Amino acid sequence: MAKIKPFKAVRPTRDKVSLVAARAYQTYTQSERNARLDNNPYSFLHIVNPGYKFAKEISGKERYQLVKNRYLEFKEENVFKQDSKPHYYIYKIVDREDRVFNGIIAAASIEDYKANIIKKHEDTIEERELVFKDYLDTVGFNAEPVLLTYPDNKTIAQVIKTVQAERAEFEFTTTFRDTHYLWLIETPEQINILEDEFAKMDTIYIADGHHRSASSYLLSEEKNASNNIDSYNFFMSYLIPESELKIYEFNRTIKDLNGLSKEEFLIKLDTYFRIENRGNHLYKPHKKNHFCMYLDGDFYSLHLRKSVYKSDNALDALDPQILYNTILNPILGIKDLRNNSRIRYSHGKNDIVNIKSMIDNGEFAVGFNFFAVSIEEFKTIADQGLTMPPKSTFILPKLRSGVTIYEF
Predict the structure, then answer these.
(1) 3-state DSSP call for residue 88?
(2) Euclidean distance between CA atoms 25 and 45, whole angstroms
(3) Which DSSP string do the residues of 175-241 spell out, in sequence order?
């Protein structure tokens, strides 16, 4: 039984939400960040980049405290206000490709995370977990919900449809040409329906935000060791039906060939793959067990020799894991995918040309692209208690930071 409950969100006022809302900090280039910080005093970037106020780069715990200070300033200036009673929040995104995402922002239970009712499918990087745990502890709020997915549910869909018949509390379009909407679910009857429907679910899956959920769990364990504060027992989530997720792959680029020549490397690949040189013609795999490789100015298609490669479980049958088992670990010597500086990840929503350019300019030696993991695959991985390699999926939708904030 999943415990998904309403909470009192801190939100921008209606007249300022379009100015406050921001993409994740790391998705901006330096010039983009500077432009927004220079020209928009209400951007959430001012909170997460507090050193701008002092024209200084600030990091570590000093930065965390300044983030908290900037956040309190936004509250003091009435840019942010907290709702007086708990709500569920319906969040809708219509992107520039006319894809529509409808979900519910709510508080998800740390106990459900511990009990594996909320299941994870992807490995995380320990250092990032600890850093974000310390960040949450200092700033006292979370502005980026974890993306959770549940089986399509007609009753929940009907509640969403009914609420969306009314005027949205927020409606704004970004410079990315995505339009965002927010509605409040206020009636006790609708709140009870949603709580009951989620309580019937044996399993909910983390689609995106494994580090955020892991960090929230670590913080909860730390806080409850000394005092049991209920707000630390939940984390902000965005729950969306499975049919509305869009999943992309993550590319891998490697800095070197582990001391091998190009010819030696290709010979080693031949054990597990049928290799076809496609020259400078862009190639992108269109089904499982087919891989794209870019090496020394040429694209290659790699077709897995299934008579040679055997998988004993859902993880070993997964394309990112196949790449690790056959190439990254035994040939290129990358054993620790979480912490090895020789490997770089870039999501497949970006064009395959990005891999080519990074290798052509000498920054990397070889790059790989694979077919996107399906939702059925990542659910099977989670159900079997396994975890994918880090950066196996890039999943939409992505919410804007600062639209709803969960305070501890």
Answers:
(1) strand
(2) 7
(3) TTS-EEEEEEE--HHHHHHHHHHHHT-S-EEEEE-HHHHHHHHHHHHHHHTT---GGGGEEEEEEEE
Nearest Cα residue to 107 out of 227, 7, 23, 242 = 7
pLDDT along the chain (408 residues), means of 10: 95 97 88 91 94 81 94 97 97 93 97 94 82 94 96 97 97 93 96 97 94 93 76 96 92 96 97 95 90 96 95 93 97 91 83 88 95 92 88 89 96
Q: Are 273 and 368 in contact (CB under 8 A)?
A: no
CATH topology of domain 4-247+396-407: 3.90.1530
Q: Give CA–CA dist 184/175, Å, rounded.
A: 25
Cα(104)–Cα(95) distance, integer angstroms = 17
pTM of the predicted model as reported, rounded to 2 decimal places: 0.87
Could you tell me where the DSSP H helices lie in 288-384? Answer: 319-323, 353-360, 375-383
Judge whether 197 and 112 are in contact, CB under 8 Å: no
DSSP annotation of 371: P
First to last CA, the chain: 24
What CA–CA distances, in Å, run from 362 to 51, 295, 339, 367?
34, 11, 22, 12
Q: Are 220 and 230 in contact (CB under 8 A)?
A: no
DSSP assignments along 378-400, one per residue:
HHHHHHTT--BPSS--EEE--PP
Per-residue tokens: 1: 């039984």
Q: Under 8 Å CB-to-CB from 242, ≥6 apart: which residues?
A: 149, 150, 151, 152, 375
d(CA 97, CA 221): 41
Q: Can you tell me which residue has the tokens 């006022």?
A: 13
Domain locations along the chain: 4-247+396-407, 250-371
